[in-house]
């Protein structure tokens, strides 16, 4: 229904309400120990909202609003904003994601927007509701939202069931809703760290605002105030007070990808909702829901309160004071005997840096049973800390070499399993000390194999989710900002609590996850695609790739000259000098002075000048040629500026001083689909579509007597699409070795392949790849710079010519909706929690579900190739250096390049087998050269 007169929108402040529910309700845990008290309160209020009788002010439309993260645009205005807020209680943290899951289970829109608070979203939706002729009720106990009360907008305090209107706002603040922000700006807020006016509290602020009418009038007339302390506070802190007003004022124009119509109250899916409530063990609510929805109630054992829930032996409480510090050989020997006896050990390293190639080993932690963990300090120091200060090794630590000599047989023993969380890091630290740990298990990768798409897989998050425990924050030990210290400066007693806990958590996660792999049916994925990749990637990262600093420096200078040239051309087009790197100045030139239509201002008052906006302006050659020229030139300038700052400048600083190489780090769990992510530095995003971007690869070179060899899958995702969607025409084209894009153009537009217009082929190529990513008519129109209707026509004809693709998409979305995940051909699960949602993210969720089996299968194929590669190239003077999505880069003795290419190509082209028999052959293209550009 179209939202309008008579419709009532309920906005539930999810971010604030979960805290209220947590503190107001008695503690409650599931039988596995997971706290669910706040989830229970949250679920009860949500159920009450969607089942209210219409006559009692029930919602016709409803949404739950969450904070996306702790940082918002307000931190840009005032970095200290909310900096003093303490971390949430440890038994509340695992309940945050569960409240979002609850919202989706109730079939209610779940909304969050990066860089904005939940309050801003609520303000925006409330404004839209009133402007549309309807009304809104905000369900929250947050006083900051009282500024929104107006005709058509009220607040309901859920814990007290108390309605808040203008009178209640006056009772709280001493002023009406329209002046709440003025009072808050003066009084400040110690909880949110809003500074306000020193010495002026809430009552005084209200008196002043009532007397002078507004904050601005008060500040302009501050000199008239008789009380000296008030007068001085206002005069001396004017800017601080105005900044405070910006902090407390809600942005009622937050950008949203949702309309009010998307928020209509709909009946929950009984199976999905009761499944969630059963998992939470909410017996009473499950019974009420089942009765209301007229379905059978599930049988659930009564939940336990924290007072009567005795932990199982394997779920012993965490007790940091019981962890052991190993300071002598006798105790170390006892631990080694225990490890050898039990056959496994959780291991973790503490270092001075996150850069594994330069970090110094500070200590090692071990765990053999839950609660039985120890820390071996090796290189803690005291004193010094600056350029002239001397530091000394703290007494009571075993020598590093002696400890490693004793641990080496254990860490390399094939009969002892070494368990880690992101163990690739520790693998490299030990490898630099001559130890190759094996065999291994990795709890991060277990989490990734089971829960990709549901949450991140860092220790803090999965410990909170699956162990119900909050780990000791590292910043409590090393601080932050300029005062931050390295771990070797941490007191050993404190380091023991932190480091041993990491090993303890890792062991407990392993005990929980290992048997669950089978139940989740991802054991094969973990054992064949995740775990064996760890030593392969670690070896590649340690090998690094040689980068020529002089080449980068020359490129950087050339880019600087190019930027200066572009700036002269920009000046000529614009007719005035301005900073092309300033979005604010650019917006004023384009929209105010040149009169380009369509400019929109954001919250700061500046025009938006993002790449998508400039791309749209470049299509205005007929209506606004100068604006189109300027936008195109700015895009060119930005591209060169990014190449210079991100690559030619930054890569010079990334060169390791000891090896002369750049050592990237790959995240195995970096993308939900299985694609690897490269960081520090990111070598996967070096542009290859422009001449300048391709030139950067010239700086990646081979040493004397060696060459770089590149092997790249040819159109692997299109080949996988042809197989999965069973498209005969595409399959035949690949079998015949045709130009697939020209073939598609010929099939769609009825033109011969010979002598084809390059523009037509480009359009077909954009559609071929766009379809894989579920591109819309709008997206294709922007890519091709053509009218939207024309782009949609292309897509429609594409589906008519290749109906199997539409069938694949429909079947994939249907599968995702039924199972909340999709799968690759190799069984990798990519969860799709938003697939049944409405509003923001729903379209993206569908596109992601369509693409994931294709991109994920391609990622699995190259993973399988990489895992097999070390054995295939054994005996050659060669090493694998980089993986860039569908490409592998090697360094090899020049005389052995042909052998390497033959072996690597055979592995890559046969990587899918025997697990999957593709009906379209994989093809690998190879090249070689003195540098990466020549090889690619």
Automatic annotation (TrEMBL):
DNA-directed DNA polymerase family A palm domain: from which residue to which, for each copy?
693-896
Report any Pfam family annotated for this entry: 5_3_exonuc_N
Q: Specify the 3'-5' exonuclease domain's residue ranges.
A: 323-518
User: What is this enzyme's catalytic activity, as reactions?
Assistant: DNA(n) + a 2'-deoxyribonucleoside 5'-triphosphate = DNA(n+1) + diphosphate
Question: Keywords assigned by UniProt?
Answer: DNA damage, DNA repair, DNA replication, DNA-binding, DNA-directed DNA polymerase, Exonuclease, Hydrolase, Nuclease, Nucleotidyltransferase, Transferase
Q: What SMART domains does this protein's entry cite? A: 35EXOc, 53EXOc, HhH2, POLAc
Identify its protein family: Belongs to the DNA polymerase type-A family.
Tell me the subunit arrangement. Single-chain monomer with multiple functions.
Q: Under which name does UniProt file this protein?
A: DNA polymerase I
Q: Tell me yes or no: is tRNA-binding among this UniProt entry's keywords.
A: no
Domain 5'-3' exonuclease, first and last residues per copy: 7-266
EC id:
2.7.7.7
CDD domains for this protein: DNA_pol_A_pol_I_C (cd08637), DNA_polA_I_Ecoli_like_exo (cd06139), H3TH_53EXO (cd09898), PIN_53EXO (cd09859)
Nucleotidyltransferase as a keyword of this entry, yes or no, is: yes
Question: What this chain does, per the record?
Answer: In addition to polymerase activity, this DNA polymerase exhibits 3'-5' and 5'-3' exonuclease activity.
Q: Which GO terms describe its molecular function?
A: 3'-5' exonuclease activity; 5'-3' exonuclease activity; DNA binding; DNA-directed DNA polymerase activity
Give a GO biological-process term.
Answer: DNA-templated DNA replication
- Top-rank EC class of the record's enzyme: transferase
**What NCBIfam families does this protein's entry cite?**
pola (TIGR00593), PRK05755.1 (NF004397)
Which organism is this protein's natural source? Pseudogemmobacter humi
